[in-house]
Design goal:
301 residues, alpha/beta, Rossmann fold, 11 strands
């Protein structure tokens, strides 16, 4: 499989013993390569599950030392993608909320004054030098192609009209990145109701598919036990769980880097599916799952 453009190539675990793997991880940390160290921890855990709890707990401690540990970009998005943002680019973060994209030059949000709409009470974060627009992703006050890049993270699961929101992103920007939680993440972290999520979103058959939540699905587990473990772990095992959610971000989030445009399907309760097909010879769709390592590393046999 050909690696997708913009997908970051993970640091390869070359060691063939557990001691060698630990030495390789420590060497990466000593050189300040945190992303590489996390790559190596992930690979070691995959190959040696009996040490995964200890290693993942240590990964949690490493991630907590990141200078911008609250940023999804710093925590995990930069592990999966080399974001195509160059000096001088105009970069819009639509739905920037309390976690603005560090490369953004312009910020926009539907609820700059209401932290309870999708942010569980967290206040909007202003950034010096970045203009702020109060608008919806479904109706943005920008000219066609106004931005070189649009970042839209954990926004689309809230919208009323997914097709309109997605086509607006394609209209105002040449390329972009979008991310939503998966149904599984909403379920086990119990986030659908508290964060006003309307859609479960997945990338399926080269199409971004929105399926409307039912009332029962939004209620989920009706418990924040796992979210508490993730946000404020108290034991080694809870630290390991929290780190796993971050390290396996591409399994618990729908992550898409796009250029030009992408196809969309919307499945509303009691209606036929709606489909938007973006057709262009220049169209390219990229997902981090396309960035597979060649061959399987056989360790600790």
């Amino acid at each position: 499989m050909t690696p997708a453009p913009y997908a970051r190539t993970k640091t390869r675990l070359s060691a063939t013993t557990l001691d060698g793997a630990i030495e390789q991880i420590n060497h990466a940390l000593a050189g300040g390569d945190v992303l590489g160290a996390i790559d190596l921890i992930e690979a070691t855990c995959d190959q040696a599950p009996h040490v995964s709890t200890r290693l993942l707990a240590q990964a949690y401690d490493i991630l907590q030392q990141l200078p911008d540990k609250e940023s999804r970009y710093s925590l995990y998005q930069s592990r999966f993608y080399n974001f195509p943002v160059r000096s001088g680019d105009k970069v819009l973060d639509i739905g920037s909320g309390h976690l603005p994209f560090p490369m953004a030059t312009h910020l926009a949000d539907f609820a700059t004054e209401d932290g309870n709409y999708g942010r569980a009470g967290a206040p909007f974060k202003y950034v010096d030098g970045s203009p702020v627009y109060n608008c919806s992703v479904e109706d943005m006050p920008f000219d066609d192609g106004a931005f070189d890049f649009a970042y839209c993270s954990h926004v689309l699961e809230h919208v009323s009209d997914p097709i309109k929101a997605c086509t607006e992103l394609m209209r105002v920007a040449k390329r972009g990145y979008l991310e939503t939680p998966t149904r599984a993440k909403d379920l086990f972290l119990n986030t659908a109701k508290v964060s006003n999520h309307r859609w479960m979103v997945e990338w399926f058959n080269n199409r971004l598919v929105f399926s409307e939540y039912t009332h029962d699905q939004v209620e989920g587990l009706s418990s924040d036990i796992l979210m508490s473990m993730h946000c404020a772990p108290q034991t080694e095992r809870e630290k390991a769980f929290s780190a796993l959610v971050i390290i396996k971000a591409d399994q618990v989030n729908t992550m898409l880097m796009w250029e030009g445009g992408f196809d969309v399907e919307v499945r509303r309760r009691g209606r036929e599916p709606e489909v938007f097909e973006w057709k262009s010879s220049a169209a390219t769709i990229r997902t981090p799952r396309e960035d597979c390592l060649t061959g399987a590393i056989q360790l600790f046999c």
